[in-house]
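So, can you check?
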Amino acid sequence: MNNLLRYDPFEDFFRGYLVRPMEIGTQTEAPAIKVDVEEDGNNYMVQAELPGVRKDDIHVNIDGGVISISAERKQEKEVKQEGRVLRSERYYGKVSRSFQLGQEIDEDKSSARFNDGVLELTLPKKAAAAAKRLSIQ
């Protein structure tokens, strides 16, 4: 079992020296949806972070106690210098997230707001049906 690795200090020193530096701060993958869920007596409050997504590209579906959030992001960037195109980048992606809440949601009373990249959902709990006793004949 030979686990020896050769170390060359000159290789590490010059690694990346002649490589063109990359631009930092550009996002080229689909944004992850980070979600905070809070519960009070009658409602669930959900905050979902969707940076760089337009309000029209967000979809929320409610199916009983299952909440599904999906978003589509389109990004195009073109860098020109002296009339020549040096770089052109395009990104199209879709991200979604589903989670189950502890109780069914009243879809008719639910509301959603989108402000500064944060989707805020107010999801009222559906009133639980009372147990019904059957009479035996």
